[in-house]
Each structure stands twice: as structure tokens, then as C-alpha cells.
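Exercise 3.2. Students should predict the tertiary structure of the chain below and write it as C-alpha cells, then compare their answer with the key that follows.

Predict this chain's 3D structure.
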Amino acid sequence: MTKHTATFILCLAVLLPSMACTNLIVGKRASADGSVMCTYNCDGFGFAGSLFYSPAGRHNPGEQIAIHGWGPSHPGQFVRQADYTYNVVGLMNEHQVTIVETTFDGRLELVNRDGLLDYFSLMRLALQRSATARQAISCMAGLVEQYGYNSSGETITICDPDEAWIMEIIGKGPERKGAVWVALRVPDSCICAHANLSRIRQFPLQRRRSFRSISSQNLKHIDRPEVECVYAHDVITLARELGYYTGPDSAFSFRDAYCPIDFENVRYADARVWSFFRHHSAPAAMDKYLPYINGHFDQCDHLPLWIKPDRPLTLRDLQADMRDHFEGTPLDMTADLTAGPWGMPIRPLPMQFKASDSTPYFRERPIATQQSGFTMTCQMRSWLPDDVGGVTWFNCDDADMVAYVPLYCCITQVPDPFRPENNPRNEFSFQSAFWMNNWVANMVYPRYSMMIGDLRLAQRELEDYYHADQDSVLAALQGLTPDDRRAYLNRKSIAYASRMMDRWDRLARHLIVKYNDQVVRREDSTGHFQRWGYDTPGYNQQFIDAIGPATGSRYRLETIIQRRER
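Answer key:
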């Protein structure tokens, strides 16, 4: 028997903070151009992001694949290889199927360390084996049933050019092999999101002679277009057996049974969903959920799972959403003293801390955050051939601080700046997109309001170019053979990544000269620095106004003058 070993070098979930990762989802009639879109910020300290890749291939009968995720070691345990596996770039395959996730943990007593598959290995296997989102759901359900599941609770986004789905899954506990789960189709006219908290509450149950909702015992029907809900047949009975639920089946809530809410997981997680929804609806309509965000669950205990946006979203809207720090909302991270002298929307860990008198405090957790390993906005377009229709707009590090680079789902060459071997965790490299982006970001963070304008210019310059160039890409592909199309898109993706690295190198060198020693060096009309001219911007007014209340008369100039006059 042939044994094929593949190492899934992926997001190290067990090493990440529990409040990690964000997914935003857009149905095809909620987007401006008819594409299905989804996003992923993979957030974890110490994780150097890179672009994962596995080639398409035909495999021998009986071939097996060894799973090496980040879970417990399983020596000698293998998964049967599929006869044929699809090309996978990042988290999108050659059929434009995209799978991304966020961890909600939930009831940790349900983790089964003896299960073979962690969630990322499960996702990658499904990407290699599935030509549609529905096939991916069926594939993941079958794999955990056969091989077991060893992660905590996950919310998984599964998309293809026509549909978007949200699936939630959690183990059954030690010595129970499979998992319980629910998958719902996101309405085409709606947007949805999840961010480390279970979102699915009630869901339609299977009825006789109806295929709107089916259980895992009827997965053979999953490709029927009327199916909009699929769930594990024991998702309710397990909750009853373990004492998580006692009511009627019709009122069963997956979230309430398997991921009970508290102030922390709502404020750190669902607040991100609330902010995304608020961008695309009347603010007052979403602000009625502020009691929920503030932990007053007796007044409101959930957000809607999805909403219809007030206008169709463009890809650039979605990319802007990934850069959110609650700006313009009651949770705005730039609007008080905690933003420091230069309106910094970045906060250090830990999430909670105490004053000298033991008063406890917490900090906000936005969509954009400094510990991101990588970020992506994925676009799937049904009216185009798969090889160019599926685009992962990708970069390493914080979404707020990088430019999204378009990479096509058919490519077979990962651009050098995104290759795992060029992105070491513990050593700076000029060849690393992760480290080049962090070099710039960590200059900007401490003096955010002073320096962010220069970064935004470079960011817009690149993204304007990339978006404008897409029409020329489509034109250049006309009449080419499939092999020539792939070769062209390989070259294009590599050139896009190189352009980004060159621009960020120039940006870093510009910033260190312009902002050296806390001043701002003046530039002439040609963009060259003046030899002697500089400005001293000082603190922002918000911080200045907080100095007096915090320090009394210590820094008041009139007090010093009065002392001199005496």
C-alpha cells in the first residue's frame, strides 16, 4: 500500500489567543458585481503568515495521506487519499471553492484529543476534494464521522461562485469519534459574519416530503437546490444527553447549547460582527443591539445571523471593512485617552488588566489587529472561467497596514514573498512579505495619526493599480490555451507581489527619514525632503486635553511663571 505524507503547515490554532480571526461573507446579490465574497483575518501572535499551496494530482489506488496538523501526534494514522485532488492556493481551490474559519471554542469538555482531524486539516482536505460548497460540507461531515475531530468549536465559511454557507461544528467529547454540526446557506441578498462566537441559533428541522432542511442521514440529497440547511442527525439528542438542553426540538439553539454567551465573548467577538453590519445599514438600526454588545442580555441576547445591506458591496468596501477599529461608533478605539498621543487604534495584550487599586478594565477587540498572520478577501465569480474567476486578495500581517495583492486560484507558483520558507518566524528577512509589512506597521503604530497618511497613499496606489489592471488581465486571456492562461496568471501574480514588496521597501525608507526623532521632515513639490525644514506636530488635541485632569498643575505653564514671579 502506498503511503503519501503531506504536512499541513497551517494557522497554529492551539497557540493563538482565544479571540482570533474574523470572517465577513457577502452573497452574490448583495455584491455590486454579482460575485460571492468572503474574508479572513488569521490572527495570532508569533505566527508568520504565508500562502499555503497544494498542487492538483491524480493518486494511486490505496494511497493514503498522513495528517500532521498542530494537534496531538497520531503516529501511523492516515486518511485515505482521494483519486484526484484539486489545486489549492491559500484557502481557495481551482473551482473557486473557498473555506475559511473562526474558532469559538464553546464547551471545551467536548474536545476529543483522540480524534484524527483538526479543523484546518479538515478544511484543507475538503478543498482538495470538493468542486462545490455543498460537496465541501458533505466531505467534512464524512471525514469527521470516519476519522474523528480533535479541535474545539469552529465556525466555518464555505463559498463557491454561486453560494455562501456558514457551518458550525464541535466535538462530542472524549471517546466519541465524530462531531455535531449545523450548516446554513446564507441568502444571496444578505451579508453575514462571524468572529469567534457561535452564530447559529435556531435552524429549520427536516420535515417529511421537504428537502429544505436535511440531516446527515440524508446527505445524498445535499445537491438539491432547495436544500438550505444541513445538520448532524444527533445535534439535538447529544445536547439533551449531556444536559445542555431540555426544551422542544423546535426551539433548540446550537449557540445556546454548545457555546453559551457571556459579556467577554460577546464584546470581544460579536462586536466585530455588529460593526460590520453597522457599516452597511442604518446606524440606528444596529445601535439598538448595543445593550447586547454591552452585556445586557436581559434586553437583547443576539445579533441577526445575517442582514440585507443598504446597498450592494464592492470588493473594496469589503477590504475597507477588514481594516475596521470601530471608527465612528460608540466603541471607537481612537476616541479617548487609551488611543495615546497620536490616536492609535492598536492595544496591547492582555485583553483585561487592573489599576493599582485593583479596579478591573478591558480593552476592545476590533476586526483589524496587530497580531494578524495574514489577511485575505476572496472573490468568486460565476460568469468567468474558474481559473480567472477565483481571486484571493492576499497579504501577510494586519489588514489595516497592508495592500491586498490579487492571486488567481489556478496558479501553480507561489510568489516568493509569500512562500513559507521566506517567512521565518524568528528572523527578519527583506524577502518576507510578513517582515516587510511588519517593519512598516511597527513604525506607524506608535505615531498612528501622524504617519498613517503616508501608508494610506502607498496602499491606495497599489490597490488602485491592481483593481484597474483586472480588465487588462481578462483581455489578455482571450484566445489562450488553458496552459498558457495558467502561465500568464502565474506571471501576473508574481509581478503583483513583487510590485508590493518594492513599494513597501520604498515606504519604509521614506518613513524613517520623514519621521526621524519625533519631527516631520518637510518635502518640496517634487517629493524630495528639504535639508533643514521640519515641523513639530506634538500631541493630538484629545491627548492634550487629558493631560490636565491626569497630572494636575504639574505641567501648567502659568504655574511655573507664577513661581518665577515670586
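Discussion points: Residues 1-19 have pLDDT under 50 and may be disordered. Residues 372-521 form one domain.
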